[in-house]
Amino acid sequence: MVRTLPPFRIMSQSLHTTIKDLQKDMYYGNEVLNRVSFLREDTEFISKSLFHPSTRFIFFNKQNPLVHKNFANMLTIMTNGDKQVCVDQIEPGQSNNLGYTGNLQFLPLGLMNHVPHWKEILHTWNEDNKNMDKSLRSKGKPTFLFMGLLDESVGLDINSLKVDCELNGDEKYLDHQGRYQGIAYYAVDVSSNKELCRNLVHFVNDTINEKFQTDKTPEENGVFFTHSRKHFLTFESKEASLFSQGAMFFHWLTTNKFCPGCGHPTIPIHAGGKLYCTNEETITANDDTAAAAAAAATASTSDRPNAKSACPVKSAPVSNVSFPRTDMAVISIITNTDRSKILLSLGKRHFTSKMYSCTAGFMEPSETVEIATKREIWEETGVTCDEVNVVMTQPWPFPSNLMIGCIGVVEFNGTNELIHLGHDNELLDARWFDTSFVRKLVYPEQVTEADKDFNPEGIMIPMGQSIAYNLIKMCVDEEDENNKEEYKL
């Protein structure tokens, strides 16, 4: 089915009625997999899942995902084996459980039998990962990330798959130790292997041509590694979260190739979940001189029980690996006590679009969320805010942020609410808008003919996929329901 999009796609978030609902279905932040992160260190599980026919793979080139953009499900998700059942989308009219519905994957052919050298690539990475081999990042080798299991905890109907397996005599899901049952997902960074990049693009394109009996080029079928936010912001909700997880992990892995303690190369261990320094030099305890380090290099650690790593990261008493990094940023909707006013600001890069949004900025070390929010509000707008509440969060993979959404309530007293843009000079404008005006921006379909000229400046608010939009909408809706126990959206 060819993908057709309206000029503005209404995101699922805008249909939610409570913050509780929204927190479970935040764009880029859905819980679509059980990450079972402890299994990343289980080499038996990783080996079994890596080669299982049901396992799904999502491919990236420099944090850019492979897509087939002309179709309803844009993110390219491939299986190891042929003719695997479709569990990546809930079928219309079905229950909320994901399971066998009689359909096959959009791309029915698997990587094992149709992509050159795929088995060899899997075997090589599996051995390297098992042995924490220094060559894990060598040129031409893809980087693998175990993302998690699609299992019953996130809606997979295991029973339907069991029935299908019994009827057809094949495996449609992974069963590890009888405890962990589901379908494994991996993200794969293929940036260092251009041949594999080309093979994947042509495999997807050839499959689409055969499926629809066409003879189009990859460009005509929209098959490529995309860098466009236009695509990132129009994924289906589940696809957006899978993209976000892979992109954020690979950004961390790509930008941390050397140990911060000693400068030696690092390798991604535990199926991409941690970074490990490859420095094998040791020094004798209580003797950190260069001479001792040189002498230690010729002797094994087992011969010297007091030896420790020359790398300060590896020799640290708490941890000898590096863990994924997320940059925390606070973003706040600013309002008054009765929600009749909303403060929105215009950033310099949105001058042309006239998009007014929430106040945002990065947290600093030793700040609480509340203090960081108050600081950002004052630094950018000059407004003093004493009441801050955390409402919702959103991963934002550009490149690796967690947006912490807050509501800041300003008590109008003739001083607190005064706007002053001269502190850090980041904004072009900031204004207190009547909530009734903002409501028309949130609900344009409710604007009457008499009010059609309510916005002569052409002011816009952020897109529906963003946490900023949902904070604005929350405040607008709360104006009428201020005394209810649960915020309404």
UniProtKB/TrEMBL annotation:
<dbReference type="GO" id="GO:0035529">
    <property type="term" value="F:NADH pyrophosphatase activity"/>
</dbReference>
<keyword id="KW-0520">NAD</keyword>
<dbReference type="InterPro" id="IPR000086">
    <property type="entry name" value="NUDIX_hydrolase_dom"/>
</dbReference>
<dbReference type="Pfam" id="PF09297">
    <property type="entry name" value="Zn_ribbon_NUD"/>
</dbReference>
<dbReference type="InterPro" id="IPR050241">
    <property type="entry name" value="NAD-cap_RNA_hydrolase_NudC"/>
</dbReference>
<keyword id="KW-0378">Hydrolase</keyword>
<keyword id="KW-0479">Metal-binding</keyword>
<protein>
    <recommendedName>
        <fullName>NAD(+) diphosphatase</fullName>
        <ecNumber>3.6.1.22</ecNumber>
    </recommendedName>
</protein>
<dbReference type="GO" id="GO:0005777">
    <property type="term" value="C:peroxisome"/>
</dbReference>
<comment type="similarity">
    <text>Belongs to the Nudix hydrolase family. NudC subfamily.</text>
</comment>
<keyword id="KW-0460">Magnesium</keyword>
<dbReference type="InterPro" id="IPR015797">
    <property type="entry name" value="NUDIX_hydrolase-like_dom_sf"/>
</dbReference>
<feature type="domain" description="Nudix hydrolase">
    <location>
        <begin position="324"/>
        <end position="460"/>
    </location>
</feature>
<dbReference type="GO" id="GO:0046872">
    <property type="term" value="F:metal ion binding"/>
</dbReference>
<dbReference type="InterPro" id="IPR049734">
    <property type="entry name" value="NudC-like_C"/>
</dbReference>
<dbReference type="Pfam" id="PF00293">
    <property type="entry name" value="NUDIX"/>
</dbReference>
<dbReference type="InterPro" id="IPR015376">
    <property type="entry name" value="Znr_NADH_PPase"/>
</dbReference>
<dbReference type="GO" id="GO:0019677">
    <property type="term" value="P:NAD+ catabolic process"/>
</dbReference>
<dbReference type="GO" id="GO:0005829">
    <property type="term" value="C:cytosol"/>
</dbReference>
<dbReference type="GO" id="GO:0006742">
    <property type="term" value="P:NADP+ catabolic process"/>
</dbReference>
